[in-house]
Amino acid sequence: MEDIFFMDLASLIFWIIAVVLVAAALVVVGQRNIVHSALALVVVFAMASGIFLLLNAEFIAIVQILIYAGAVTILILFALMLTRIAGQRVTNPNARPLAMAVALVVSALVGLGIIFAATVSQFAQSAPAAQLLQGTVCSLPSNNVIAIGQLLYSPSCYSYVLPFEIATVVLLVAIVGAIVISREEE
Question: Which residues form the signal peptide (predicted)?
Answer without folding.
Answer: none
